[in-house]
Amino acid sequence: MVALGMSSSVACLSFLYITSVLSASWQPTPAPKPNSPVSSPNPEANSPDPSPATADSPETQLPPTAEGLFDVTDYGAEPDGETETSSPFLEAWNAACSHNGDSTFYIPEGTFLLGPVSITGPCHNNQPPKIVIKGTLMAPPNLSAFPDTNWIVFQDLHGINISGGNGEVPNIDAQGEVEAWKRNSCSKSEKCNKLITSLRFNNVSHGTISNIAVSNSKGFHVAFLDCDNINVYNVSISSPGDSPNTDGIHVGMSTNINITSSNIGAGDDCISIGPGSSNISVADVKCGPGHGISIGSLGKYTDEEDVVGINVRNCTITGTQNGVRVKTWPGAPASRASNLMFTDIVMINVSNPIIIDQEYCPSNSCKSTSEPSLVKLSNIHFKNISGTYNTESGVTLICSSGVPCENIHLIDINLNPTEPETPREGRFNVKGVVNGLEILNSSF
User: pTM of this prediction?
Assistant: First the structure.
């Protein structure tokens, strides 16, 4: 065990085994004010519900009789919120997808009760229709209406463009509060009940999703799997902080995904980035409530692919269980996560602002916690992170005892406890093996 003497602004380390020398420039002095482009909200304010994004895309302003316009109501969809409309939706999509020329799949104003559907390609000349949504989509409230774990699936599409109409942002409401949230969930039981993803993208590339709202999911709100070159912006995701397993956006087995200028509040991770993901960018996102922005969890399954090149920047995280986090399961088989950047981030009343957790085991659901994780974490940068936290530790690094965390950098970190006069220990806690730890100009 190594204990380093520090001033009252930074408590000592505990349970620390270090296989290289700490940077000689360690100074527990207050950091300069971060030069962050994100404005710091009032730290005393409660975590706001995510506000709707603003729909301002001029290309979505369609005349009622535009050429190549395939309106779902022309195929029998009733915008009354009571008549199930999946068959008319699919008929309209198939017609638009096979159209010889530019086409638009159009959902007008009104409320549409929509059962599970798969919007699939490829389309004519491998050019899918634009998808313009002006109305509200409502999922069936009961889980029995879903034969599998998805509500709306977009699959095998290249060049997809999904956007809300001009004016008020359309809402895609899964009605999770009616039944799904009342069932036992992964947070309470190792055996989860069926979790329904609201919007799932499989093998979709070169796409844009913008100016829509997704709410009250029965499971994940949005998931990207095996996707490439997707831009997500001006998206609002909202579920209560106690809604179980309702990740905002999940990315797995995907490359070149950009998530920007969006508001995400959920009952689980605002954004989670899973195995096989590379070159993922998250910027200008407001997160809260929820569990923060996470890499992982990693290592739950064998033969997982590596995570490389994640960049999270210019974000504000408010009232969440965690801030920015990397999590792997104990006993996890070998894989790697490297080149992870977290920069210019404001934390407001967050429980664990910066955390690496290689003993992640929610609800004691692990068969064994004695075996170390073999997921190798390396080249992780936390820079220019400021704000407040309400737990004993502003920074927690729980690294594997089997493979060391390597090259961890904490630079310009300025985190203050919400109760600074309360005697505390372990504001900076490290456990496991760390090979190369640099801390510069930081106070926490």
Answer: 0.86
